[in-house]
Design a protein that fits this description.
The protein has 400 residues and is α/β, with parallel strands linked by helices. It has 14 helices and 17 strands. The strands form 4 sheets. Strands 4-12-11-10-7-5-6 form a 7-stranded mixed sheet, with helices on both faces. Strands 1-2-3-15 form a 4-stranded mixed sheet.
Length: 400
């Protein structure tokens, strides 16, 4: 039996079937390319769902991880100080609105923590009736129960109801809708400045400014979920920067440690000051190996020319996607290296054809394909993508 057949058989036998995986086995990666066990190459436009910002096999990242591993100090829990943790916390605070940082292990965990932090602040301020959390249509904030409660997708929520009480949903990028929902009972408003899972939908600066004003009026905490859109993906370090708005809490995860599990909650002094020892915690949070990886990734993204490259290639990607002449494409949108084509055919068909053409692709909602590649992608890879996408779409058109 081949390696591929053996792995797929054992996966079906021993893995909980929560993911539908294609019939190949990825074995190694280099740059923006991954290779399966049969040697086939795939240009990666998924990046582990916006995680592998530096691609595969980055020497500096591997050296930093190996150096920390060599000390033997891999994990000590949050009970003790490490310089690795404080170095990353200082770096993130110095390059954001935040005064303090808390580390965890995933995006869902970061959003769960953010909701707890907001409720603790209300509790400290004796606003015990403040329990409403406002999120928005097509949002995705995670699959744990609290995060799922503010992720208004029926197929995700229905099998696990009842949800955590207090969650209400407004229309994304609609100021009037937000104004109707945000009131004196609102403890927090959570929003993605650019929605990832929901279709690469961009919040306008006016919408984010309105949320800031409404939260200030009603003493609610404004949470920006930048788990997918942050850390340089838009050509700026943070996706919200161009709006001129600062949140009270920002959640991070996916790309922060270059592929190692991490989450972060960045907060103002007021929010952070409401939390006391014992209020929150995680056994694996802030491990030294992951912290050093995170520090290196942030410094790389901030290095001269890096964000300029993301913006340049991102603009080129949008331009080239606009050039594809297909009746199946109904919209092209995005910012930086976070783009999507809205299509009139099932995204699964495009993804499957992508494998045949040596592309890793992923959907974004029910009617779009998103492009969230490693941030080191080059224009030549964009040209290859557009050429192959054109062939795929032409083939689907001919079949119909």
């Amino acid at each position: 039996m081949s390696i591929t057949a053996d792995v797929i058989q054992k996966d079906k036998q021993f893995s909980v079937p929560v993911a539908g995986r294609p019939d190949f086995v990825l074995e190694r990666g280099e740059g923006v390319t991954v290779y399966d066990a049969d040697g086939k190459a795939y240009t990666d436009w998924v990046a582990g769902i916006a995680v592998n910002s530096l691609g595969y096999g980055d020497k500096e990242l591997m050296d930093v991880v190996a150096k920390q591993m060599s000390t033997g100090l891999i994990h000590v829990s949050g009970l003790y100080h490490t310089q690795a943790l404080t170095d990353l916390a200082e770096l993130l605070c110095a390059n954001s609105f935040a005064d303090k940082a808390y580390f965890c292990n995933s995006g869902a965990e970061a959003n769960e923590g953010a909701l707890k932090f907001a409720r603790k602040l209300a509790y400290v301020n004796e606003h015990k009736n403040k329990t409403k959390v406002v999120s928005f249509s097509k949002a995705f904030h995670g699959r744990t129960l609290g995060a799922l409660s503010v992720t208004p997708t029926e197929k995700y929520q229905t099998p696990f109801k009842p949800m955590v009480p207090g969650a209400v949903v407004g229309e994304f990028d609609n100021i009037d809708s937000a104004r109707e929902l945000i009131d004196q009972d609102t403890v927090a408003v959570i929003v993605e400045p650019i929605q990832g899972e929901g279709g690469i939908n961009l919040a306008s600066a006016e919408f984010l400014r309105a949320l800031r004003q409404l939260c200030d009026e009603h003493e609610a905490v404004l949470i920006f979920d930048e788990i997918q859109c942050g850390m340089g993906r838009t050509g700026e370090l943070w996706a919200h920067t161009s709006s001129g708005v600062s949140p009270d809490i920002m959640t991070l995860a996916k790309p922060l440690a270059g592929g190692l599990p991490i989450g972060a909650i960045l907060v103002t002094e007021e929010v952070g000051g409401a939390m006391q020892p014992g209020d929150h915690g995680s056994t694996f949070s802030g491990g030294a190996v992951v912290m050093r990886a995170g520090e290196m990734v942030v410094k790389r993204i901030l290095s001269p020319g890096f964000l300029e490259h993301v913006k340049e290639v991102g603009d080129y990607l949008l331009e080239r996607l606009e050039e594809i002449n297909s009746p199946h494409i109904t919209d092209v949108r995005g910012r930086g290296l976070m783009a999507a084509i809205e299509i009139s055919v099932p995204p699964a068909d495009i993804v499957a054809q992508g494998y045949e053409h040596g592309l890793l692709l992923v959907n974004s909602g029910p009617d779009a394909i998103r492009f969230i590649p490693p941030l080191i992608i080059e224009k030549q890879h964009v040209d290859e993508l557009v050429e192959k996408l054109t062939q795929i779409l032409e083939g689907i058109q001919n079949e119909s």
